Each structure stands twice: as C-alpha cells, then as structure tokens.
Amino acid sequence: MLSATALEKRFGAVRALAGLDLTINPGEFFALLGGSGSGKSTLLRVLAGFEAPDAGTLTLDGQDLLPVPPWARPINMMFQSYALFPHMSVGDNIAYGLKRAGVAAEERRNRIMAALDLVGLQGMEARRPQQLSGGQKQRVALARSLVMRPRVLLLDEPMAALDAGLRERTGLELRALQRKTGAAFIMVTHDQQEALALADRIAVLDAGRVAQIGPPQEVYARPATRFVARFLGAANVLEGRMQDGVFESAEVGGVIASGLPADTIAIALRAEQIRLTSADEAPRITGILEDAAFRGDDWLTIIRLPGGASLRVVHDTAPPAQGSLVGLLWEAGAVVPLFA
Amino acid sequence: MKPGGFVRAMMLAGFLFLWLPILLLMGFAFSADRIPFQWGGFSLRWFGVLAANERLLEAAWLSLCIAAASATLAVLAGGGIAVALARFGPFRGRAIFGALAGAPLVLPEVVIGLSLLLLFVALEGLIGWPAGRGALTILLAHAGFGAAYVAVVVQARLAEAENSLEEAAMDLGATPLVAFRTITLPLIAPALVAGWLLAFTLSLDDVVIASFVSGPAGTTLPIALFSMLRLGLTPEVNALGALVVLVLGSMLALALWLLGRRQG
Amino acid sequence: MSRAILLAPFWVWLLTLVAAPVLILVLMAFATPAEGVPPFTLGLRFAAFAMLVEDFYYAEALLAALRLAATTAGLCLLIAYPMALGMAGLRPGWRLPLLALLMLPFWTGFLLRIGAWIGLLRDEGLVNHLLRGFGITDAPLALLYTEGAMLAGMVHAYLPFAVLPIFTALIRLDPALLEAAADLGARPARVFFSITLPLTLPAAAAGFLLVFIPAAGEFVIPELLGPPEAQVIGRVLWQEFFQNRDWPLAAALALVLLALLILPIRWFQRLGASA
Q1: How close is the nearest chain B Cα to the Cα of A76, in Å?
Q2: Which end of chain A is more exposed for a tag (fewer CB within 10 A), N or C?
C-alpha cells in the first residue's frame, strides 16, 4: 500500500537516510525501531510530508506521494510532544482537522463525540490542554488524528513521555485501537520491548537503512546482522569463520558450532538460550563465572570463555560462586549464523 | 535563599533612588508655588496652565498620533520579521536578516538619527519622496526602530511555544496560510499587543531621533520639552509628569498583565 | 519559492531602514560640506577623518564618552546586583509587581525624569531649598550642570537595564546547586562568592554592556544635566550637525563611534546567544 524505495536524505554532512526501502501493508501495526541517528524520525517526517527526500520514491496505492504537501496527504501524525493547540479546548483541537476538511457542524459533533469515546475521554471536550495529564494529552492527540479516519497513522515515540507503569498498558490500548480502526499504524520507537510486543512487523533501522524487516518473532529469533542481534535482546555475538566445517573463533578458544554456511562471519547466541551446568556434565564449552546480578525473575551472569570473550547467560536460580568453573549448554538451533 | 539585611536595604535604596525623583515630580505638580519643586499650598493651577498651553498640546497630539501610527507599522513589520526568524528555518541570507533586525537595538540613538535623516535626504533627492521632513519622516524612523523591539518580544513568545504546533495543523489539513491564521497568530497575539505598547511608548519618549529627522512643522512633545528644559524649568513640567506617569503607567500595567496571563 | 515572496517585504523594510542608512552614512563621511540645502556635495574627501585624527578634541570626546559610559555602567552594576539579589530572593508572587515597579520609571518619559533631576538639583531646587531651610548652607550649592548631576541622571536612567539580566539569571539559577554547596560545608557568604557570583557573571556582563553601549552615545543627559566641558561624543556629533552644519564630519564621528562599539556589541550578542 505505502511503498518507499531508495530514500536518500542528507542534512549537511549527515546522511540521515541512506537508500531506505520499505513497504507498509494496509491495516498493519508497523514498528520502526532504531537508536538515535538511525533515521527513524527523518523517515517519519518524509512520510508525513515535512521533509522532502533528496532521492527515492514514495507511493501510496501506486500514486506518487512526494509532490503532495502534508495537508493533502491521507496520512496523519501523532507528535511526540502531542502538539495540542493550547488556545483551544479539547473539543476544538479534535475539530480542527474536520473543519479544514469542510465537514458540516452536525457531523463534526458526532465524530468528535465518537473519537472521545474511542480513546476513553468522554465529557472532556471543554477542558484545555493545560489542564490534562500526560496520558490524557496523548489520548487527545490520538483522537485528533483518528477522527480524520486516515489510511496511515504515524506515531512518533508515542509512549516516550509516559511513566514506565503506564507504558505497557497504553501500548496494548494503542494496539486495540489500531485493530478497531483498521488504519495502518507506523510507530517509531527506540524501545525494543514496545516494538516486539505491539507490532505485526518490525523494521530495524541502522544508519539510515533497513537492517532487517519482518514479524517480531522472526527478527528476534533469526537476526540478519550483528547490529540487529545486539540491538534486539542484546544477544551474544561472537566473531569468527567457518574452517573445515566448524566455526573457528579466536575469542571463544574452542569449537562451539558446526555445519553452518560457509560465509558465516559471526554467530549470535541469546543469553536466555544458554544453560549453565557444572563443568563435568558434557558441556559444549566451559568458562569462568565472572559476575552475577539478581534481576528479580532470574539471574544475569557473565561467563568468560577460554578465548577471552564474555558471554551473557541467564540462569533461573542463584548461580555458583564468582570464579567458579562452569559449563555451558544450548540447543543446536540456538546458534544463529550472521553474514553481516 | 532568603536575602540578608544588607541586600534588602540595598534593594529598597535602589527602588527609592528610582522612584523618589519621579514621586517628587508628581507631588509638586499640585503645588501652588510658581517656583518648581517648592511647596506653596495645594493647587491644581498648573494642570490648568498646561491645558492652556497650545504649543504643548499640539505637540502632545502630534506625538500621540505619530506614536500610534508608528507602533502599528512597527508591529506589522516586527511581527513578520519575528515569524520569519523563529519559524521559517534556514533561508538564504538569514544571518544578515537577523543582524539587521537586531541592529536598532544596539546602535546609539545619535547614529540612528543621523543615518535615518541622511536616508530621507537621499530618498528625497532620488525619488522625490518623502517631500521634506516632518511628521511622516518621524513616523517612519520610529517604526524602523520600533519594529526591532517588537521582533524581540514576538520572537521570545514564539520560542517558548513549540514549533510542532504549526506542523500539527498542516498535518490535519491546514495550508501554511491557514495554519498561520488559526494557530500562530492567536499564539502571538498577546506579544503583538505588548510589542505595540512598547513601540508606542518608545516613540512617545524619543527626542534624539525625532530631532534629527524632523522639520519645521514636526515638533513633537519630547522636542518641545527638550527646548523647555534647556532654558529652565516651570511647574507645567511637573503637571505633565504627573499625567504621563499615570497614563503610561497604566499602559505598562496592561502590557505586563497580558503577558503574565498567557504565561499559564 | 513562495517563502521568498513572503520574505520580500521584510527584506525591503530592513534593507531600506537599517542597511541603507548605514551605507549612506559611509558615503556622507567622504562628502564635502557646502552651503545650501542640503549642505553637502558627494565626493571622495578624507578631510573629515583627517580632522578626527589630527584634532585632539575629538579623541577626547570619544574618551570622555567611554569614560562616562564605563562609570555609569559600573555604578549601575554596583546598585543593580544587590537589587537583583533582593528581588530574586522574594516569593515568586512578588516578581511581576516588582518588575513593573522596576520598569515603570523607564516608561514615564525620559525627559520628564531629567526634569525631575533639574528640579531637585538646581539653585532654586528642592535639595538646595532643604539645605538652606535646615540651616546647613547659606548660599545655594552648584549641584546642577556638574559631572555629578550628569552621572546621577545617567545612573537613574539606565539602572533598570542593569538589573534585568542579573535578575533573570538569578531566578534561573538551580537552587539545587546552592543546596549542594551548603551540603558540602560552605557558609552562605562562601556559597555566594563561589557559586552564585561566578554563575551570574555572564548576566552581569550583559547588564554592564546593556548600559555601556547606549550610554557611550548619550547626548541628552550630558546636554541637560552636565557641565559645558562635558563634551562627550554624542554632544559633539549633535553640535557638528546642528550648529556647524558639517554633515560629513558628523557622519565620520558616527562611524568612528560605531567602530568603537563593534567589539562590545559582538560580545553582547555572544553573551545573549549562549544564555
């Protein structure tokens, strides 16, 4: 439906978008995940129409979107700061877009009421933005955009300004809203938990291009690059190469994988997929327990391998003492070969 | 941190230093004595003398008209300059634009006065307008430096209002012009009014620039006052002072109240 | 681009009313004075600048102006800082009224305030009247038309400008910094000198410049309150223009004054940018 190809955007010497390709399907909850400088905010602004790319194409249902100014695009945006108009009431804020579209007063009233209902702010139409809490402001911003019935709703770090406790619940409410309205939501976030929990598909952005795109479970289980492996879930990444059918790695100091494709240049191993055992129970490799931290649900341990690399390993009970020799075990399928 | 005794005393002394001469000026306006700043019993006669002083009244009226007109012009120019600087993002020549916008704030009055006069002389020589110097040239000169002050006030207001508001408006279907009319303008309205009052007061108060760019028929109140003060002092000045403090004081109070209200 | 069209009228405004005058000023400095109206002919004449360099009178005028400006700014700072401290230390509800009280004198009419000083300091003025009334003096003291009177008028006129930036900086100061210092063992005086003062120094500099820069070109106060010998540059420029009708010389003086003030102005703008 919404398709971007080879988007390029420079700001001075900084290349914010470096040949970015993306396709959004109708009605999907899409997450753009990346750190600062990854280009995610720039991409959002290009989609909304506030930035024009230096090169590349952007189409909606096959129609070229680039020459269309922001006020004419069937795309609406929820700003990170909410951008509620301070000199208008909640009701007038929500009415703003409808007035611009020439919707008659009667229908306007109905749609505003419906929008307030949708976000759970019934009866608040006379309040002013200054009188609202952070969560309420966010709902007004949502209502203001959704009342326009956009095909695509862009959300710029929607949960960033909320307290941690509110974030999870708000995130689920957001997804429920998306299902209900049927619009495609494109959410920009730096919070991988959010992205994994809410999205139908994720795109991980790195330095202005898409490092990997796909459903959350897939991207998480089979990261395509070192960057994605580290960014999503902080997987252990070990450098090396295939030699005579086994994965040779100086920093490991032993053999820990075999039968991987010949052009594997690193492997990813998730902390929660490695098991700690005693050193003599036929482990795949042994190491020294360097450090351990209690996390409530489990323990995070740091194991130093013979070659010098440190692995993050999650253990569900109190681990052995610091300095002990431990063994590491994992399923064969837990090793993910990386080619980039 | 609560201020100590010394600091408190200095603060009071400072305010006293600022206000005592003014209060005395106002107080002696009600003195019957013809020697200024001498008490000769309560009297309102000097207000009467003031009211009968045709020259001063004419000058005052001229000053008020010029102040109102130049303030209005200053708001139109300064407001636009401020919006351009605060909302337009980078554009060609922005640095020079900003420097020119702020220049009247830091240039000495004699320099501004002289250079503007030369401008008017040059313009008259080149295109025949403005023809001679008088109220019109004073008006233009005052609008010129008034705009710089308005620009500062409006820019400050725009700086504290987030600039994604106009983008949000455009995202919701407003063209830039509509966004300006429905979002930006209401937002800066208090600053525009405060700017108008500021430009009005500055115009009403100016003697140096007006003296340079004025002509035989353009005697403003400050120019007339200046001549009077050069020669000596009469209690009419006290009466004038009392009136001005009351009028300008209420205008300033209005401006501050407006700005303070929008702060919420 | 429609941006350019929107900006055009404002460019015209700024170029006509700000840029062009300064350029014409430069032209005028090289012109030749003449009889008639207007009293000059354009050309390339260096005599005006030569006069500035040769005749010590003008250099002295510049120095006198700078000295007056510096003294005024210095005195203003001395009074302004404690005032700002006092104002900043009060409850926030007091701030707006106090600011109004501070700025109102500025708006009561510059000339009227000078008139007040004249009324106070002249031979038949209030001060002398009180002195004689209390038997302290017999003959009136010459208070008016002195350096002192001029300085009093200058400080009175410019004081609010010195207070404002310092006051703003003080209320923006993070109270946690002061508490941290106290927590680390510093007494109130020490906290002031090691934390408050250094952090508000840029604001104090801004206040100094906010007074110094316009005061350097001051004409009215020296003319109305100062002695005839107080020939500051503002006064000299006025006289050259209005009395001697030497427009090129006045223009040259204006340019020199501008040149002298460029450094303080740049400094001031840099202070403003970093604030």
Answers
A1: 6
A2: C
Q: Which of C156, C234, C265 sits opposite B18 (nearest CB)?
A: C156
Task: Give the span between the Cα atoms of A318 and A311, in whole angstroms.
Answer: 17
- The alpha carbon of residue A165 is apart from the nearest alpha carbon of chain B, in Å, by 27
Residue C107 has its nearest CB partner, among B103, B111, B252, at: B252
Taking only the tens place, the pLDDT of each residue in A172-198 is: 999 999 999 999 999 999 888 889 999
> Using CB atoms, which residue from C96, C124, C213 is nearest to B106?
C213
Sheet with strand A266-269: strands edge to edge: A236-239, A266-269, A336-338
Conformational region of residue C176, where left means phi above 0, alpha means psi within -120 to 50, and beta covers everything else: alpha
- pLDDT tens for chain C, 275 residues long, are 578 888 999 999 999 999 999 999 988 888 888 777 777 778 788 888 888 888 888 889 999 999 999 999 999 999 999 999 888 888 888 887 888 888 888 777 888 889 889 888 888 888 888 888 888 777 777 888 889 999 999 999 999 989 989 998 888 888 888 888 888 888 888 888 888 888 899 899 999 998 999 999 999 999 999 999 889 999 999 998 988 888 888 999 999 999 889 888 888 888 876 65
CB distance C71 to C208 below 8 Å: no
Q: What is the dihedral of CA B236, B238, B244, B250, to 10 degrees?
A: -140
- The answer to whether B56 faces chain A, any CB pair under 8 Å, is no
If we measure between CA atoms, which residue out of B186, B200, B181 comes closest to residue B157? B186
Whether B171 sits inside 8 A of A100 (CB atoms) is no
Does C125 contact chain B (CB < 8 Å)?
yes
| Gap from B220 CA to chain C (nearest CA, Å) | 13
Q: What are phi and psi of A248, to 5 degrees?
A: -95, 125
* Distance separating alpha carbons of residues B236 and B238, to the nearest angstrom: 5
Based on its alpha-carbon atoms, the radius of gyration of chain A, rounded to whole angstroms, reads 24
pTM as predicted:
0.83
Asked if A307 and A252 count as a contact pair (C-beta separation under 8 A), the reply is: yes
Q: What is the pLDDT of residue B257?
A: 77
Cis check: omega of the bond before C227, within 30 degrees of 0: no
Answer whether B172 touches A (CB < 8 Å).
yes
Are A156 and A79 a contacting pair, CB within 8 Å?
A: yes
Amino acid at B122: A
- Among A residues 84-113, those touching chain B with beta carbons less than 8 Å apart: 85-87, 96-97, 100-101
Burial class (CB in 10 A: 0-12, 13-18, 19+), A164: exposed
Contact predicate A313/A287, CB 8 Å: no
| ipTM score assigned to the predicted complex | 0.86
- Token pair 């610091």 is found at A322
Determine phi and psi for A124, rounding to 5 degrees: -100, 10
Phi, psi of B175 (to 5 degrees): -70, 160
Question: Given CB atoms, is B174 within the 8 Å cutoff of chain A?
Answer: yes
Q: Is A93 helix (H, G, I), strand (E, B) or coil?
A: helix
Q: Indicate contact of A with C: 3+ CB pairs under 8 A.
A: no
Within 188-207 of B, beta carbons closer than 8 Å to C belong to 201, 204-205, 207
Q: B183 at the A interface (CB within 8 A)?
A: yes
Nearest to C86 among B11, B201, B211 (CB): B11
Contact assessment for residue B142 and residue B208, using Cβ atoms and an 8 Å cutoff: no
Render the burial of B120-151: b for 16+ CB within 10 Å, e for the rest.
bbbbbeeeeebeebbbbbbbbbbbbbbbbbbb
| CA distances in angstroms from A31 to A193, B43, B166, listed in the order given | 11, 81, 26
Burial (CB < 10 A; 0-12, 13-18, 19+), residue B212, is: buried
Question: Which residue of chain B comes nearest to C267, CA vs CA?
Answer: B106
